[in-house]
Prior knowledge:
Keywords: Disulfide bond, Membrane, Signal, Transmembrane, Transmembrane helix
CATH topology of the domain at 23-117: Immunoglobulin-like
Pfam families: Ig_2 (PF13895)
Strand content: 35-45%
Structural class: mainly beta
Transmembrane segments: 300-323
Number of strands: 27
Mean pLDDT: 84
Domain Ig-like: 20-100, 124-290
Order of helices and strands: EEEEEEEEEEEEEHEEEEEEEEEEEEEEH
CATH class of the domain at 23-117: Mainly Beta
Distance between the termini: 71 Å
Protein name: Ig-like domain-containing protein
Amino acid sequence: MKEFGQKHxxxxxxxxxxPPEPVLRxxxxxLSPGASVTLSCEVEHVSAGWSFYWYKAVPDLSHKSGSYSYxxxxxxxxxxxxxxxxxxxxxxxxxxxxxxxxxxxHFYTLYSxxxxxxSGDLHPSASLxxxxxxxxxxxxxxxxxxxxxxxxxxxxxxxxLPDFLSFCSDWGTMNGSTCHVQKIQSSNxxxxxxxxxxxxxxxxxxxxxxxxxxxxxPVHPVxxxxxxxxxxxLRTENLLSxxxxxxxxxxxxxxxxxEMIIPAVSKSHExxxxxxxxxxxxxxxxxxxxxxxxxxxxxxxxxVVALTSVVLVIFLxxxxxxxxxxxxxxxxxx
Length: 334
């Protein structure tokens, strides 16, 4: 096991060169249905002969500073000659680590820093909720991040884009399963919950100065057919003058109301939104839409077994019927 944040020196006290630390890159950062995840492991001054090892990061809550244990991914026990590794069928938030080795006996690099692929979809075993429920917040706002699921112990993690990982103990107060943040940092960050065996959905939260205009949009994806309300807010004004709402830089509403209601969301409503009012323009935020027709991956194996059983019963009945018929037996149906 290796703790996140471990550093190394190029040269030790004995004037021996310490192992290099590879850099792991993950693409894409955010999961979409059916997409594969590509991991790339980069070693400084790379030369021939390296084998690459790929690991899943498992949260270790016994260390308050935040650490992970590492489990080898399938087909990685002997290393791969290629410095990339493709993962198929990933549906939930997950963390990954790599390292490289070469020679006999093997000389290994350090482990890379963990990197993550995020899913916004809620999952019953681990979920994160945010209060107030919106993406954009003023830096003077207090925010609560609450974890729910099949665990008695949680920690809340934050990945400050582009590449800095920290935990609630660094910038908030963990009380039971809730992380309380007194002031949101002016930043663009991804938050999620971790238990000893699971990662929750991830949410994107941005912090903005008090003189800025904010778009009020939900932090979680909206399910097709449901309604959603978008708002526009200045910290110093409760009632704004005429408000303009935009989707993907195209104006979609220009009224005196500070809210825009979409009564039945569809996939066409997915995109970047922003608002304008009082001579100011808000930053844009992504509104994700979840399809109602997407099958639950957990129910797929059950469906396959059920269909296979039905086909098998029909096949056996037909074989039995043909056998009886070949012997000249007749059957009457009433």
